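Notes, Module 5: Reading structure tokens.

Key idea: the token line is not a picture. It is a compressed description, and you learn to read it the same way you learned to read a sequence, by spotting repeated patterns. We will look at two proteins. The first is printed below with its tokens.
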Amino acid sequence: MAKPKTEVEEIYEESVKHIMGPLRSYWLNHAFVRGLQWLRWNTAVTRLSEQVEDRDRIQAVFNKMRANQRTIIANLTQRELKFEITPTGPDDESIRASRLGEAILRDLHNSQRWEVIREEHMAGVCKGGTGALMVEIDPDSKMPTVKPLSLAEFMVEPGSRNAETARWCIKVEALPPKTVKALFGMRREPPADAHAGLAPFQHRMLHHSWGSNSTMPELTKVLTYYERPIGKSKGGFQVVIDGKVVQKGAWPFPFEDRLNITVARETVEENQWWGTTYMDDVRKVQVILNGIWSGIAEHAKELGTIRALFPASAEPFVEEMTDKPGFQPWPDGVDLPEYLEQPQMRPWYEQVIDRASMMIDDIVD
């Protein structure tokens, strides 16, 4: 018998259906950047699947998407974040308050590694077209913390045009059971349910993330629900693990006109809180590039085998020939063997590679 679901779990599962297209793009782009590019989207089960492997064919990967992403992230992060707070007035007290605010921001910038967070946030936006920064209150220090979220790690209320002013948002995490037990003071470790329902290729992709010779760790799904005060609702938050609400409380932030989340989009999609990404266009050209390089690699493999032509009457002598240096017997009056020249690749075929690479650069620029 299926375990009953909480209201938060039902809301999340229903809301995910509204962004299946962007999620499909995110996981495809995520796999392509990782170098797993011979795959397809299985519409029957709405999951990533590998293409049927033919051991007699070469499946080459010329990962230009990863190289371009590194260049883009480097250009976006080459300047360090700077903070400047304008004083609210000309008096000394206002000026001191603005300087104090700048000092606090610089301290948080260093202690919470905001430069690393910015890099992770930009990578998620490039892959999925949408990424978020979520502010939460640390339960021990009572200080605000910032966490970058990819499109696969958060959800806002469907139908919202502005994610920040939506009614609620949900953060999705996959953490080790021991970590979950310690964070939320649970009596026993929760089950490792984060991988439930994954397809074989998704298991392999997650396994690939931890190294080919390692065992994929057990992870538990944690849903954190935030609802801002609006109308008669006072808002609040809930943490759901294994179908149970393990933590809940009042709205923990001083503001009520927006959620504790800000969303960035690579390409704006009108009337939607999520966006699209240039990687969707690059991915199609990347597939063509891989196909061309695979054909060249197969051609080069055939070139490595030297072939010779000889008369049928000389076959017994050919079978007795060895690769040892010296003289080989050959019947009189029979033509000597001739090497078969391998067919050369057409120049236009090689030019397609340069054109495909230029197309990717044009899309990225």
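Here is the second protein, with the sequence above and the tokens below, as before.
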Amino acid sequence: MNADEIIVNDFIEDFYNTNFEYLRLIFENMDVLFKSCNMLLDIFGNLIFDNEFEIELEKIKPSSFVKNMMLINDFYKKLHINFQIDEVANKGILDITTNDREKVIKNKDDEAFYGGWTNYLDDGKKSIEVNNNGLVTDSSIWVHELTHYRNQDDDGRSEVGDILTETMSFTYELIYLDYLEKDYPYEAKALRIDMIMNTYSQCFVDTWNMMILFIIYDKLGNITEENFKVIFPNYAIDDSYERLIDYANTYIVDNDEITDSLLYTIATMLSIYMFMEYKKDNSFIEKIEMFNAKINNSTIEELFNIINLTNYTDDGIFNENNFKKLLESFGSYKDILFNDLVALKGIEQSMDSVKGRTCHYPK
């Protein structure tokens, strides 16, 4: 092994041993998760590569703090969810930073536009930090953070809850954008596109490369070019192994956010599935709510069973049957995103031309 390979091997071994129990869902279902991640890249790749998109902040409608609260409360009411944002506002849990709307737009202030955090304070109390930019899109971020709050137990999250809380926040944010679309079509469509593009660039590619490294390590023990060719002969072309090691050293080793990339990728897969099940039958929200309510006191298998991703075989919860369900939902969601792009950009591509492309290592 050369020096770069040794660094990557040491990192993967340490990460695997340190995080195995915490990331059991990922490690025990790595093969099918890799296939799912590959399908995410393939299905959404053309939409992203062929259609550059950036939210035009000046097109986003202004909205007051009170108006956004009213929207959120109406959203929960229509879903028959017994929760109102007033509960956290009146308890002093909601920590709001008010920003100048014109400055946020002029400066394209991503930190203000996307910022939101849900935490436990040093005294154990819960805290939700959000920005009030005077934009209707603020409410989408608030729903995301409120979902984290709603599945926070007073004494902390379980390991399962910690892994899947982002899944639930993504899911409710997608459902909220669906609710918002009737009166705010630009905002809903733009945020949907933006969510998948940000996650694609920030998480999917990192996760895809990480999973290749984990699979080689798990099956053969060492990450070498020879082992890479044994496990992934279809990818062993040209300088692909060298690019894999280079990518790992550049973007993965010593990356404090690599765990988040893995969890955000899982969140994207499952949230798209749950959202599309909700779109087929709105009563599926009852299963989503049950999943959210039991997130800290159930096993992953029990939670997946709630949303009809059943462990039918000994192949694990990401078995072939569940993989097919995820794949179907990815395709349906791609259709939604394509129509969003048609509406916002007027692209003339036919749906048949937007097919997945084979993934290769980033150059």
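Summary for the second protein:
- DSSP finds 16 helices and three strands in the chain.
- Strands lie at 94-98, 116-120, 126-132.
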